[in-house]
Design a protein that fits this description.
Largest sheet: 2 strands, antiparallel
Strand order of the largest sheet: 1-2
Helix content: over 70%
Distance between the termini: 31 Å
CATH superfamily of the largest domain: Winged helix-like DNA-binding domain superfamily/Winged helix DNA-binding domain
Number of helices: 8
Length: 189
């Protein structure tokens, strides 16, 4: 058995992924797969919660969940409610292994950053549409320039936050490396 961050991985599960790695990599490469697996990996969740968290269509979410079930990465459970039963999704042990791989190469962090950037872009685009719609009666020649400056400032702040997250991640990695070398030095003494 091999120890991972989440659980013990059986040799059978590990061999299943290794022997079929092309299938799992193809699945992971499909649009929205990483987002869906990250949301399901947060614990049992509903389709609605996944839909609220990711930036892909209902149809794509449904396809990724169904394929995840076929590959034994995701399982469906049902929880009784006051109104009947609620369909929920959770990762299988094999799904946890896949999530460990995602986290090992920081795809979780990168995916969250992409989601944030996409939401900011969508918000900026929406602001631009409202601006253009607002100009269709009155025209203030300074208004577009002011709005553009605001959008540039928002983008600049977003980039600064992203770099700050990168710096924090790099510092955390350096701290972990230093702890590891300290542990090695202590074991030599």
């Amino acid at each position: 058995m091999i120890f991972s961050n989440r659980l013990l991985i059986s040799d059978m599960d590990l061999h299943r992924i290794v022997d079929n790695h092309e299938v799992y990599l193809d699945y992971a490469d499909q649009k929205g797969t990483i987002e869906v697996l990250l949301e399901v990996g947060n614990g049992t969740t509903t389709f609605q919660r996944i839909e609220d968290a990711v930036l892909i269509s209902q149809s794509t979410i449904n396809k990724r969940l169904n394929r995840g079930i076929e590959l034994d990465l995701v399982r469906v459970t049902y929880r009784p409610t006051d109104y009947g039963t609620q369909k929920r999704y959770e990762l299988t042990e094999l799904g946890d292994v896949m999530l460990n791989y995602i986290e090992a190469v920081n795809l979780d962090t990168k995916t969250r950053r992409l989601q944030k950037a996409q939401r900011e872009f969508d918000s900026g685009l929406s602001s631009m549409v409202h601006l253009v719609e607002g100009l269709s009666g009155k025209y203030d020649s300074d208004l577009p320039q002011k709005r553009i400056e605001k959008m540039k400032e928002s983008t600049r702040k977003s980039h600064e936050e992203e770099h700050q997250l990168d710096d924090e991640s790099d510092q955390s990695d350096r701290d972990k490396e230093e702890e590891g070398s300290d542990d090695q030095d202590d074991s030599k003494n």
